[in-house]
Predict the structure.
Amino acid sequence: MRPTRGFTLLELMVAAAVTALLAALLLSVTSQVLGAWSRVSGQLTVTSQANIILDQIGARSVVLAGLATDICVQLTAADAFLRGLKVHVPEDCTAAELPQKKAIALAYMRDILKCDTRPWRSLRWHRA
């Protein structure tokens, strides 16, 4: 059995920093989200809840980051792409168990899902 390589400390620190940044950005829309949530009744799936919230805040694009580039991030990017959103997946804000898996997933997201995979510092942030 071939040994596998885990995440490096730098990859984990970058993921933690990006997570903190995204958490701060989410706090800025908390009132809109809570307003949308209070208007919704009944049992909704997580996807339905996310769609309602994205509609309420007028989202046209999303930025995704995470530790499983080839699983969670890629599937979430596909959902956002099918929803018609512009998807940003900064290559330096994701990680995978193996570098090859990350590279394959990023290439798929860039080429098929039309995601912007440039490093996060090269992205332009616009406020609506």
Observations:
- The chain has one domain: 9-122.
- Strands lie at 61-63, 86-88.
- The CA atoms of residues 5 and 68 lie 14 Å apart.
- The first helix runs from residue 9 to 27.
